Amino acid sequence: MNKVEKVKAFSELFELINMYYVERDQPSEEDNFFAKVENCCDLLELDFEELKRAFELNSLA
Description:
Elements: H1 3-23, H2 33-44, H3 48-54
Helix pairs in contact: 1-2
């Protein structure tokens, strides 16, 4: 993955985390939020579980 693709993946991950904090107490139409976050983590070679712990992303399921 080149640097431009990594920036795009990071930008998407940032937007997802920001959306989580802004809308976490509201019903979500985003069914695959965690799948998208996990995909970004894979692209950026980040540990998905550790990212969830670090940013306190909790599945409501």
